[in-house]
Amino acid sequence: TQPGLFWADDPSRAITLELSRHLAQITGAKIAAEPWPFGGFPEAQVEVRVEEMLAQEGGMFRLAGQYFVSSETGRARAQLFDLSVPLPLEAGATAIAAARAQAVRDLAVAIARDGLR
């Protein structure tokens, strides 16, 4: 670690909130992280399980795992994901954080396109 650098939030919570925000922006739907803050039940639920989230030697940030989508109509989807974002060779914390943010945006696009259709 580098002295003076701190994470602003728990990574799991941060990614959950980021995904919720990106999915809401992409789909225009009412989307929120658990607990569901609205009356009734959501039309669909998305669960994401991250297997790997790391900056790799060779200049790539990798986000891999699986997501699951279930809906009120009974339709269910399960999809593996393996996303990579390029990093500068001498990437510091700022570049790694930017790559992580891009990978989460890419995951939201994939979920909206393939999981919520």
Report on the architecture of this protein.
This protein is of the alpha+beta class. It has one domain: Lipoprotein like domain (Double Stranded RNA Binding Domain). Helix content is 34%, strand content 31%. The protein contains 2 helices and 3 strands; from the N terminus they run αβββα. The protein has helices at residues 11-27, 93-115, and strands at residues 44-56, 60-71, 76-86. Strands 1-2-3 form a 3-stranded antiparallel β-sheet, with helices on one face. The longest helix has 23 residues, at 93-115. The N and C termini lie far apart (41 Å).
What would CATH call the architecture? 2-Layer Sandwich
Overall CATH class: Alpha Beta
Q: What is the helix tally?
A: 2
Shape: globular
Quaternary structure classification: single chain
Number of strands: 3
Strand content: 25-35%
List the helices and strands and how they pair.
Blueprint lengths: L10 H17 L16 E13 L3 E12 L4 E11 L6 H23 L2
Antiparallel strand pairs: 1-2, 2-3
Helix pairs in contact: 1-2
